[in-house]
Design a protein that fits this description.
- The complex is a heterotrimer of chains A (283), B (238) and C (293).
- Chain A has 283 residues and is an all-alpha fold.
- Chain A has helices at residues 2-33, 42-59, 64-86, 91-111, 130-148, 151-161, 163-168, 173-199, 209-222, 228-243, 251-265, and strands spanning 121-122, 201-202.
- Chain A has one domain (7-208).
- Helices cover 71% and strands 1% of the residues of chain A.
- Chain A has a two-stranded antiparallel ribbon with strand order 1-2.
- With 238 residues, chain B is of the alpha/beta class.
- Chain B has 10 helices and 8 strands.
- Chain B has a 6-stranded mixed beta sheet with strand order 4-5-6-1-7-8, sandwiched between helices.
- In chain B, β5, α7 (169-184) and β6 form a beta-alpha-beta unit.
- In chain B, α3 (80-87) crosses α5 (104-123).
- The model of chain B has no long low-confidence stretch (mean pLDDT 87).
- Residues 289-293 of chain C have low confidence and may be disordered.
- Chain C is mainly α.
- The longest helix of chain C has 29 residues, at 2-30.
- In chain C, α2 packs across α9 and α9 packs parallel to α11.
- Chain C has one domain (2-218).
- In chain C, strands 1-2 form a two-stranded antiparallel ribbon.
- The radius of gyration of chain C is 19 Å and the shape is globular.
- The chains are: A mainly alpha (283), B alpha/beta (238), C mainly alpha (293).
- Chains in contact: A-B, A-C.
- Chains A and C meet through α3, α4, α9 and α11 of A and α3, α4, α9 and α11 of C.
Chain lengths: 283, 238, 293
């Protein structure tokens, strides 16, 4: 039995780590979605975190924790810079700005020598352990639970429902939106750093528009009314391709079909606000 | 094209002031300018001696001006209690750190303000539905929730935009009592309404707009008999 | 030399503009961001290829086939993925995700049909005659591309502004509910717009396939990126913006390859995009101003 478990672990531990990383990424975009904003830059933020952390551990022999913190801080700072001018405008502008930003970052990765150019960085030390991922995810979930029943969570929800009305109630809407955006960037960066240190190799291709859309899909599929939704969505969409591996070239089609069906029949996502409420409270 | 042209009026503290005029006269525009949703091309908004012209909506709220909207803008997916708690946003003061460390201060504040929110809901007779999602309320109920939420901001001045629209006579009576009670507690109120029974019944001062201009201001008696006002309404009175 | 590059930029930019035009139409009228537009582009290119290699049709018919195939597919996507969502309330991004699902299915099918290798049009398919005007040299193909692209763009603009149907489309784009109240068949407008916009995307596909003569099932991906960038640059939902944005992007790509290096081509394009966004987040023709009531 022990051998079986060990063999299973050996084969699937990367999958588990990836599920956890994608969970973090899905939550990072959830933060912005929950206050009505769309960020398409979280893949780029992830990349910034990955490269920062990897360069620090590889070139400066920095301790892992510090590297991760830096990997989170840099995207967060950039998010503040982009966010403040764009978040004063309506929702779709952040989407566009982050999309453009994401492409600029990807091209930067491709052309800078410190990031290894198109070859990426090879030989990133294996530092990530399961407890790191569980700890970060756990702290994040705890924070989200606490925020939900607080004035901050209510403020975000109000902004999401009706930004103008929220402002008139005294909520500093730009401030809250920028915070959500920067926090999301931080988490994506940390996720990137953690990811880099168990995949050993990072390249600019992984952090482009396609992945940004994937992250968004995790969240939308799972449902953005609660923070459990993105976790469910990211888990399903990470595990499904593995399960479907045996289908070969049709994998993409099946994935697409599943996506289509879920979106059409559960347009608010798999997990909705009412999923956890008892029937009586559903109103 | 001017939406408002040379409109100037004052609202005395502690009174209920009415703002009336035919549709399109610019009444809601006045509210929008006051609450910072629309910057005026010229002119000033002064609250309690402070110039708040053109300041963003949340700053206006911080100055103590609360408002309701003509087309209801409650937060449908949140409960009634939560809607009111959002109104009380600026009354909370605990920090995120306090929140994450689960310090007693946060629990105390939440408890205190939730109780207060419950009281506000009682003022508008909605306390028994506090846990309902706001979208489940009847139309009249939603209007009252708008009022409760604006009240929750603890304003010096409460701007109420057509609260009686679509209400039946019984609901309108109740609404009038509620506004008078609110005023009785010290809140200054300015009401936009088309229902003359409401305006004449509760307002101390009335300002009349037509085509973006102020055509009359005075007590209900004066306004009732003012020929310009009568003309503007073509003699219509509910 | 500069004029020559300008001419090349015109040829390239006009196809980009054509692609972006379709994309913008769908965004402006249906209010969704269709991430299947890249696959539509690819389908157009392959439909043209099949028309030429299997059906032995000439270039005109091939372009027609490409547009028909792409348009039909676009209409189908609307029917299957977007229409069901119109009937119920949904997260405003759900249709976009639905188009992603469609793109995946379509790409997968074409991968099954054509595999992953690169295809070419037959070598002698199109004459390589070049015309010289002063210091500029343009191939017949480039001229045709410019003519077709601008031709279609002008037709669309004419249709939108001078015909009853065009007015209906603009009305729906402006305010769907009011348009419905005025008796405009909104659903029909959506279907026609999806078809037309996709046909334009297909046209862009075959024209690109003809110019670069490399077709593969993932050729739509970089194009989709460009399309999004162009639409952002030009201002979401604005047709002039799409056209101008396409030309600007074509210009910046050609110039950076000609005068700097091809490595920096994308960097410059997106750097430009980013700068514009910082200064004018709404794009060149986008509606600016802080969001008020």
């Amino acid at each position: 039995m022990g051998e079986f478990l060990a063999a299973t672990w050996y084969t699937y531990n990367t999958l588990l780590y990836t599920v956890l990383v994608n969970g973090l990424l899905a939550l990072s975009i959830y933060l912005t979605l929950a206050c009505g904003q769309l960020s398409l830059g979280n893949a780029a933020f992830m990349g910034m975190g990955a490269y920062t952390a990897a360069i620090l551990t590889m070139k400066a022999s920095a301790p892992f924790g510090l590297a991760l913190a830096a990997g989170g801080a840099l995207p967060a700072l950039v998010a503040l810079i982009i966010g403040i001018p764009t978040l004063r405008l309506s929702g779709v502008y952040l989407a566009m700005a982050t999309l453009g930003f994401g492409e600029v970052v990807r091209v930067a990765f491709l052309n800078l020598s410190i990031t290894g150019g198109s070859l990426g960085l090879n030989g990133v030390p294996a530092k990530t352990e399961l407890w790191h991922l569980v700890l970060v995810l756990g702290v994040l979930i705890y924070s989200l639970v606490k925020l939900r029943g607080s004035r901050f969570g209510r403020a975000w929800e109000a902004i999401n429902e009706d930004e103008t009305a929220a402002a008139v109630m005294g909520i500093r809407t730009t401030f809250y939106k920028v915070w959500a955006f920067a926090a999301g960037a931080f988490i994506a960066g940390v996720a990137g750093g953690l990811n880099a240190h168990f995949t050993f190799f990072i390249s600019p291709r992984e952090y482009g528009f396609e992945f940004a859309v994937d992250i968004l899909t995790f969240a939308i599929l799972g449902g953005t009314q609660t923070f459990w939704g993105p976790l469910v969505g990211s888990t399903i969409l990470t595990v499904l391709p593995e399960l479907l591996r045996f289908m070969g070239p049709y994998r993409l089609a099946i994935n697409g079909l599943i996506l289509l069906l879920v979106v059409i029949y559960l347009p608010n996502g798999i997990v909705s606000r009412n999923t956890f409420k008892k029937k009586a409270d559903r109103g | 094209m001017r939406v408002l042209d040379g409109v100037a009026f004052q609202v005395a503290a502690g009174t209920i002031c009415g703002l009336i005029g035919p549709n399109g006269a610019g009444k809601t525009t006045v509210f929008n300018i006051i609450s910072g949703l629309l910057p005026p091309s010229n002119g000033k908004v002064i609250c309690d001696g402070k110039d708040i012209t053109g300041r963003p909506p949340h700053a206006v709220a911080a100055q103590g001006i609360g408002r309701t909207f003509q087309n209801i803008r409650i937060f449908g997916e949140m409960s009634l209690l939560e809607n009111v708690l959002v109104g009380m946003h600026r009354l909370f003061s605990y920090s995120p750190l306090t929140l994450f460390l689960d310090l007693p201060r946060k629990r105390r504040e939440e408890k205190l303000l939730r109780e207060k929110a419950g009281e506000i809901l009682s003022l508008v007779h909605l306390e028994d539905k506090a846990a309902w999602p706001a979208r489940n309320l009847s139309y009249g109920g939603q209007r009252k929730l708008e009022l409760a939420r604006a009240l929750a901001t603890d304003p010096k001045l409460l701007l109420i935009d057509e609260p009686a629209a679509g209400m039946n006579p019984a609901e309108t009576e109740e609404l009038m009592e509620e506004i008078v009670q609110i005023n009785g507690r010290g809140y200054t109120v300015c009401v936009i309404e088309h229902d003359m029974k409401v305006i004449m019944g509760i307002c101390g001062q009335i300002a009349v707009l037509n085509f973006g201009k102020l055509i009359a201001a005075g007590s209900p008696q004066e306004i009732k008999s003012n020929p310009l006002v009568i003309e503007a309404y073509l003699g219509k009175e509910e | 030399m500069f004029l020559q590059q300008l001419a090349n930029a015109l040829a390239l930019g006009s196809v980009y503009a054509l692609f972006a035009l379709g994309f913008t139409l769908i965004f402006g009228v249906l209010e969704i961001i269709t991430l299947a537009h890249g696959t539509i582009f690819m389908v157009g290119a392959f439909a043209g290829l099949v028309a030429v290699t299997r059906l032995h049709l000439g270039i005109g018919a091939a372009i027609f086939m490409a547009m028909l195939a792409a348009g039909a597919l676009g209409w189908l996507i609307d029917l299957v993925a977007v229409r069901p969502l119109r009937k119920r309330s949904f997260h405003h991004l759900a249709p976009m995700i639905a188009t992603i699902g469609c793109a995946m299915v379509i790409t997968s099918v074409f991968q099954g049909l054509f595999g992953a290798e690169a295809y070419r049009f037959p070598f002698d398919f199109f004459p390589t005659t070049a015309y010289v005007l002063g210091s500029i040299q343009l191939t017949l193909l480039q001229l045709i591309i410019i003519a077709v692209s601008f031709g279609f763009m002008m037709i669309i603009i004419f249709l939108l502004h001078k015909t009853k149907w065009g007015t209906a489309v603009r009305a729906v784009a402006e305010n769907r509910r009011t348009a419905a109240l005025l008796g405009i068949p909104v659903d029909r407008v959506y279907q026609i717009t999806s078809f037309t916009a996709s046909a334009l995307g297909g046209a862009a596909g075959i024209l690109t396939g003809l110019s670069f003569n490399t077709l593969h099932t993932f050729m739509g991906v970089p194009m989709l990126h460009r399309g999004v960038a162009i639409v952002i640059l030009g201002g979401m939902g604005d047709i002039r913006g799409a056209v101008l944005g396409g030309l600007i992007l074509g210009f910046s790509e050609i110039m950076s390859v000609a005068y700097l290096s091809s490595d920096f081509r994308d960097a410059i394009s997106f750097g430009l995009l980013f700068l514009i966004l910082l200064v004018r987040p709404a794009g060149i023709f986008g509606k600016t101003g802080e969001r008020k009531v």
